[in-house]
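Narrative of accomplishments. A recurring question from our advisory board has been how the design workflow behaves on a single, concrete structure rather than in aggregate. To address it, we present the structure tokens for one chain from the evaluation set, followed by the sequence designed for it. No filtering or post-editing was applied between the two.
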């Protein structure tokens, strides 16, 4: 197998140089982290499931005109994506109070919000990804006011799509986070949804039972994380048929 140049390695993914200029290969690892990587584990099969689930959502978004960095899935663990300039923000959309928001405001988890709320946090693990107001974002040049307006519009369209799909299979989309990237075409800049959309980046609760089907299973020691992700994939009809939890990745350094 040809060796590839590693561009970046994060907590859950590795980026390799792509086959053509302006592309990258995104590899999904089995690593799971929580609390800014203070808690770590290797969860067999997690990367395979997240690859398939992110493909499902990115393909669906592309089909309805929401631009993403996704081009195609290459194999069980890799995607071909467009290389983008990542805006250093996590864009969080909340439909129900949960996690840090519930703790911050003293709200009961699961409380329905009057409307979807979009928050921004600054991407820096060492700082704990702190929430930042729009004034900071504009003042420090991370994004312009027009960028922020476009980002909010993109995030709400993602919310409409993903929450609708999840509702159809009996799952409540409590909240999620996405990243946004810039693609340059000469002087023209396009904003696209980047990173991934998977149970790693969403809170997903069974509508009937309230069972958690996302990374909170790992954060809160609520059971087997792969089983939770497998249930989401099964309901969406994207469960890989030729993989087991013991499938091992072949990592290229």
């Amino acid at each position: 197998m040809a060796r590839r140049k590693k561009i970046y390695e994060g907590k859950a993914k590795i980026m390799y140089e792509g086959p053509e200029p302006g592309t990258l290969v995104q590899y999904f690892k089995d690593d799971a982290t929580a609390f800014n990587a203070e808690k770590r584990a290797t969860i067999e099969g997690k990367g395979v499931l997240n690859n398939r689930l992110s493909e499902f959502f990115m393909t669906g978004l592309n089909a309805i005109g929401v631009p993403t960095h996704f081009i195609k899935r290459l194999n069980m663990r890799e995607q071909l994506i467009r290389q983008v300039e990542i805006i250093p923000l996590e864009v969080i959309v909340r439909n129900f109070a949960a996690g840090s928001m519930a703790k911050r405001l003293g709200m009961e988890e699961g409380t329905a919000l009057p409307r979807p709320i979009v928050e921004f946090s600054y991407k820096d693990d060492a700082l704990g990804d702190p929430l930042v107001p729009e004034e900071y974002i504009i003042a420090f040049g991370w994004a312009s006011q027009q960028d922020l307006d476009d980002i909010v519009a993109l995030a709400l369209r993602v919310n409409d799509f993903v929450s609708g799909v999840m509702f159809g299979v009996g799952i409540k989309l409590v909240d999620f986070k996405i990243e946004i990237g810039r693609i340059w075409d000469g002087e023209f800049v396009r904003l696209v949804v980047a990173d991934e959309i998977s149970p790693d980046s969403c809170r997903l609760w069974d509508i009937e039972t309230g069972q958690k089907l996302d990374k909170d299973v790992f954060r809160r020691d609520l059971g087997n994380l792969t089983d939770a992700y497998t249930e989401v994939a099964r309901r969406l009809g994207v469960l890989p048929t030729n993989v087991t939890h013991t499938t091992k990745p072949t990592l290229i350094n």
